[in-house]
Amino acid sequence: MAARIEAHHLAHGFCFFAAELSGVSPFIGFIGISHVPFEAAFTPAVEIGWRLARPFWNRGLAAEGAKAVLNYAFKILNLPEVVSFTVPGNIRSRRVMEKIGMQHDRAGDFDHPRLPAGHPLQRHVLYRIVRNSANAEEFVDLANG
Predict the structure, then answer these.
(1) Coil, strand, or helix at residue 70?
(2) Does residue 142 contact residue 103 with C-beta atoms inside 8 Å?
(3) Which residues contact residue 107 at a Cβ distance below 8 angstroms, ignoring those fewer than 6 apart?
(4) d(Cα 91, Cα 84) in Å, to the nearest integer?
(5) What b/e readout covers 132-141, taking b as 16+ CB neighbours within 10 angstroms?
(6) 54-69 pLDDT tens trace
(7) DSSP alpha helices (H): ranges in the chain?
(8) Domains in the chain, number
(9) Which partner from 9, 16, 45, 144 sits 20 to 30 angstroms from 3, CA to CA?
(10) What's the pLDDT tens digit per position in 82-109?
């Protein structure tokens, strides 16, 4: 996985970043952005994602890191839009998506093409945030302040 992340960074200038909790743990997981690696109705697209070790859940850390990543995506990389997706029952990730200003695109919900038909995790919900939307204004302000 580390090799794939490094290759993506070399090719595109962004990737999933190692996340640490200063003074507590040098590695708690990762948060970042990456090109969606499969074809779907909403691709090509850049997705934001996170995966933190369980002891660091429910502390606001994923949302805090994701906001910093969105700031980077919109103000440094000048991306027009960022997406995120998960299975419908992943309420924790969906809550993070909503906390960072993403909106559920119900019409964009999809069956993940890398999972076989009938797989219990095949259905995914799609969330979006557009750089010039009201939901993204705080990231513009972060970069200016």
Answers:
(1) helix
(2) no
(3) none
(4) 13
(5) eeebbeebee
(6) 999 999 999 999 999 9
(7) 2-12, 61-71, 91-99, 137-144
(8) 1
(9) 45
(10) 999 999 999 999 999 999 999 999 999 9
Kindly tell me the burial class for residue 7, based on how many C-beta atoms sit within 10 Å of its own C-beta (0-12, 13-18, 19 or more): exposed
What is the extent of the structural domain holding 37?
A: 2-144
Structure tokens at 29: 């997981």
Query: Helix, strand or coil for residue 25?
Result: strand
Question: What tokens were used for 114?
Answer: 């890398």
- Other C-beta atoms closer than 10 Å to the C-beta of 46 total 19
**CA-wise closest residue to 36 among 84, 78, 73:** 84
DSSP assignment string, 37-53: -S--TT-S-EEEEEEE-
CATH of the domain at 79: 3.40.630.30
Residues 6+ positions from 22 with CB-CB distance below 8 Å: none
DSSP H or E run through 143: helix 137-144
